[in-house]
User: What shape does this take?
Amino acid sequence: MKLILRTIPIGVFASAVLSGIAIAQTVQQVEVRATRALPLTVESGGRTTSGIPIKDVTLSYGVVLDGLNLATSSGATEAARRISEAAKAACEEIGRQYPNATPSDKECAKAATDEGMTRLHELIAGIEMAAGK
Assistant: This one.
């Protein structure tokens, strides 16, 4: 019985230490997803290697926000810039590989940026809530 009592506190302590390490190493990141539709025609090139038509193409980029203080306007502005750039790059890459994809690069980037900004605002709200603001 004494062994069990000693093991539990050591296990609890080890868990607390290890979880603290895991929390300290957490990377703040927002995923930006660009999605575009492909026309279902033979000449569109929108098929898998086995010949199955591809209806939508999605490309995701992780935008790392480490080193940014999201509680400041400059940190939030930089995060928004990174999200916008990732959305633009993802949509342009899809457009390069599938030129007939819709919507346009610009419309795709706007939708992906809007979705990424929603995630950023959720992240900022969580940080503020954790800080007791």
Q: What stands out?
A: Strands lie at 29-37, 56-64. The CA atoms of residues 32 and 115 lie 7 Å apart.
